[in-house]
Amino acid sequence: MTTFTPRTNLAPLPAAAAPVFVQDAPSFGGRPGKGFTLVEVLIAATLSTLVLAAVLSSFLFLARTSFRSSGYSEMEAEVRRGMDTFARDTRNATEVHWNSAQSITLTVSGSPVTYAYDSDAASNTCGSFYRLAGDAGQPRTVLIRSVAPEFAFKRYKLEQPGVSDNTASNDSETKLLQLTLRATRTNVATVGASNSAISARYMLRNKRVAN
Fold it and tell me: Which of 39, 49, 161, 203 is least enclosed, having the fewest CB within 10 Å?
């Protein structure tokens, strides 16, 4: 007969592990973080739109400022070169013929040189101050572009003691020439820049005048 003796040194069975409950950490406002509400999305979209609008406004402002600065510098340089060319021919001219308040013809080195403002809307040089060396069939050299219509020449006599008005009335007594113009630069995205210029009175050094 077999006898079984119970063992008393066996390790006790481990107790069942207690269940662990993990709770979602509350997000802002105490609500579980499971996404954005419609109100939050609308607020974010509005703020983004305002920021983009501010950036775009700054960009357009810088673009306008840059265009005005570059346009004004270019225009000023062009006016200066045009005035210098006119002054050089005036000083070397031996004769002057007054065509109109916007056109004169100088005789330089025996050849005619016309300076004029082109008001013909059908012309390729419309609205410009140009130089024409030779007859009317020769090509025009544009000196200053985008000139306002109030362009005008003025002619003067030599200054005389006691005479306040030295305006010349004919070619023979003309000894000084003056030019008045206003150049402009415009763009569809910016306000145009303008530069007004009144030249000094240039003397026709080689021309004889009537007494």
Answer: 161
Give SS3 for 89.
helix
Question: pLDDT per residue over 31-76, tens digit each?
Answer: 555 677 888 888 888 888 888 888 888 777 776 666 665 666 788 8
Q: pLDDT per residue over 114-133, tens digit each?
A: 999 999 999 999 999 999 99
Residue 185 lies in a domain: yes
**Tokens read off for 74:** 């270019």
Vertex 137 angle, CA 102 and 147, to 5°:
30
Number of domains in the chain: 1
CB 170 within 8 A of CB 157: no
pTM, two decimals, is 0.65
